[in-house]
Amino acid sequence: MPNESKPRAASDSEPRERIAWHPAFVSAMKADLYKYRGVLEYEPEFQLNFEPLRIDLLIIKKAAGVVIDTGIARIFRGHNLFEYKSPDDYLSVDDFKKTLAYVLLYSIHERVPLSDVTLSIVVTAHPRAALAFIQDEAAQTVTKTTPGVHETTFLNVPVQIIQSKLLDAGENQFLSALRKDNDVDSFRAAIDSSDRFDTEVLSTMLAVYLDVISSANPAVYKEVFRMTQYSNFWERVAYDSGLADRLMQEGRQKGRQEGLQEGLQKGLQKGCIETAKNLIALGASIDYIAKATGLSIEQLAQLLAQTPAQPTVLPTMPKKRTRKPKAEK
After folding, report:
1. Using alpha carbons only, what angle is made at residue 118 by residues 112 and 121, rounded to the nearest 5 degrees?
2. In the chain, N or C terminus with fewer CB closer than 10 Å?
3. 130 and 264 belong to one structural domain
């Protein structure tokens, strides 16, 4: 759904292009709950009413008797709403209140009882303001059930706020690594766990996920990309998804830019040298030439030694014409 929170300013070290985090979030959820793919149905950006108002992800549990035995899905009922805040965003109190309203809208629109609905909000930054609101103003108890997961209830609806980067990486390799401050070990953990996915999943779902985290963590991605033990994996995913092609294209683009910059610098240097030679030939002082061209005294001394002495040619002054005296009448 549209994000109305004010994003934090990006630093110079962060990628400048806009990263599509939400599709990668959906892929991470599917990957971390892959074991239960037969009983879970995913509907990204589910429309809550007839107006353009959507929740980021709806997960339908098709088999009521199945227990989803993983931390982030422990509260699952029949209808599970997920709101996702990207690493560039944060969860404000107003954001939290709106997501509670989404639960009521969904219940009304889909004619689903609140007793069969849950709400999960996934964030990267610590949800300090939202947790304070729940405990102080709303007077609700918040329980930290597993690392990174805070649980509470509203109108008997289980609500959990998930701080993804604090999740157990062994259980949630993909969601925990969906951030900008990734390291090589997080990448390797996600790749090492890929053997449990079939080829179709690798070439579609994980390709979207890897495209996002590689864009957000280019240096780490390049380091893992070069590791020989992952050559088969990159053949299955990186090359099929176009990630490798993009990396090589970025390298070529960088090379072209560096070549243009180098050519420009060489051209400027050559122009300064030619100007200095002309000024030397005109007999200008070294100090004046240095200020005019930006060349150092040492460079000018070398040019002076290489430039043959030119005779100073003074301009020829025109001869003064004399008038003949007029003859007397």
Report:
1. 135
2. C
3. no
- DSSP 8-state symbol, 309: P
- Which residues constitute the domain of residue 166? 21-181
Q: Number of folded domains in the chain?
A: 2
Q: Split the chain (329 residues) into runs of 10 and give each run's mean pLDDT.
A: 46 63 90 90 81 85 88 94 94 95 93 96 96 95 94 96 92 89 80 68 71 83 68 55 53 56 61 71 69 77 69 44 53
Taking the C-alpha atoms of residue 24 and residue 86, their distance in angstroms, rounded to an integer, is: 10
Helix (H, G, I), strand (E, B), or coil: what is residue 195?
A: helix
Residues 176 and 29 in one domain: yes
Domain co-membership, 28 together with 146: yes
Q: Which residues 6+ apart lie within 8 Å of 212 measured at CB?
A: 19, 20, 21, 23, 24, 178
Does 144 fall in a domain? yes
